[in-house]
Amino acid sequence: MKQKLVILAVIAMTSGFMHLSASAFTPGSPMGEAVPLSGAMRTIPIDAKTKYVNVTAHETVKFVANGNVFAITFSGSSATTFAFVPSVFDLNQLAPAGVLNRKVTVYVAPDPLYISG
Question: What's the pTM?
């Protein structure tokens, strides 16, 4: 009798999890994600001459572009990260829509805390 109750409880819990949205289990972008400005440790201005920016994995950077301000925490590879993380990509992939009017390449250096020597 107890075994039937355990099985019913497991079925009820499983069906409850199935109703959760898929976004509850989806991690942020493998490149990084937008965060509050207060978390930024440095600021990078983007003007008409800016073609690229250099950042470090796990760094939070505030960008000032065309009168708009946004912050990004950049992802990085580590022993606990199983997804491929590109080290070069277009900042438009993470910037708010319409903020950048052209391509700005991001070069992400590895986080020195995760480099074994």
Answer: 0.68
